[in-house]
Amino acid sequence: MKIAVMKEIHEGEKRVPLIPPTVEKLVKLGAELEVEADLGLSCRYDNGAYEKAGARINASREDMLKTADIILRLRKPPLAEIDLMKKGCIHISYLDPFNETELVDKLAAAGISAVSLEMIPRTTVAQKMDVLSSQANLGGYVSVILAAEQLDKIFPMMTTPAGTIKPARVFIIGVGVAGLQAIATARRLGARVEAFDTRPVVEEQVKSLGAKFVKIDLGETGQTKDGYAKQLTPEQMQMQKEGMAKACALADVVITTAQLFGRPAPRIVDRAMIAQMQPGSVIIDMAVETGGNVEGSELDQVVEVEGV
Q: Which of 110, 244, 117, 105 is closest to 173 using CA atoms?
């Protein structure tokens, strides 16, 4: 079986599908690994490291696509590359199938079996391939580090001869994998942390990390069988905004992580709420790739809205 590992062409992408230690394991199982030249440079793995692990380096992307039984990459493939893949091969990557119907239809028409990594369920059996949870965990950590860098004050409380500096207040919206990691990281940095989620069942998890759970009565809510929050009604969305406005106004940092599986992210922080926040406060929108939780947020950009 021939496995082709493709180099990412998306600007700013530093992750790689396979690292040399994993390549070595697959080679020992009998697979033939072909790696696109310079695949691992962004992670400090040169071509020699992959060759030492047993892979063959190929500089021809077209040749790799034409001969591979399994194609592995991170992001969805360009439509033009589907024509190069041989019928019956397996393609594994993020696919965004809910929004990329043209891509999915073309893969099916070409006779290619496509595995969408973001569709893998949160189960014990599949947890090694649960890319959403692993990346959300890292994202939650990074969001707090970025917020601490942007904020013009320190996170922990400090007592000095000149007086006491109060801890920064962090409000986290959405207590999934990313939210829980953000809570834990902010607490480790010494911040005073509050969190909100439409699922009351996560209150205990929030408290176990030393944070305060903000309660907003929304009536009947809940979660899906995969652990995602259910979509709220327009009335519940308005109640949620009113309840969160006070917490946002008091916060130095707001981190939003709210996602709806297969749907655009809900818009939960609007300009009116931002205007009530203290000038210089920081908002990190972790859902910006799927539409954003925060009005005015832009992908990979630092923007200022109402002094925030």
A: 244
Catalytic one among 228, 259, 285, 297?
Answer: 228
Coil, strand or helix: which one is 211? Answer: coil
| CA-to-CA separations, 56 to 6, 18, 39, 43, 49, in angstroms, rounded | 12, 13, 12, 18, 11
Q: Per residue in 247-273, pLDDT tens?
A: 999 999 999 998 888 788 888 899 999
**20 phi/psi in degrees, rounded to 5:** -50, -45
Rounded Cα gap, residues 240 and 229, in angstroms: 14
Cα(63)–Cα(182) distance, rounded to whole angstroms? 43
* pTM (2 d.p.): 0.85
Quick: pLDDT tens for 200-230. 889 999 999 999 999 887 766 555 555 555 6
Among residues 251, 283, 268, the alpha carbon closest in space to that of 170 is found at 251
Q: How far apart are CA 270 and CA 293, in angstroms?
A: 8
- Going from the C-alpha of 124 to that of each of 3, 112, 131, 178, 227, the distances in angstroms are 26, 27, 13, 19, 14
Instruction: Please indicate whether residue 94 is annotated as part of the active site.
Output: no
Is 73 a known active-site residue? no
Is 127 assigned a catalytic role?
yes
Q: Tell me if residue 133 is catalytic.
A: yes
Give the H or E element holding residue 93: strand 90-93
> Can you list the domains of the chain with their CATH numbers?
2-119 (3.40.50.720), 131-290 (3.40.50.720)
Determine which one of 60, 113, 127, 134 is catalytic: 127
Which of 42, 133, 150, 223 is catalytic? The answer is 133
| Candidates 96, 130, 252, 285; catalytic one | 130
Instruction: Point out the catalytic residue in the list 122, 187, 188, 267.
Output: 122
Which neighbouring-strand residues pair with 282? 253
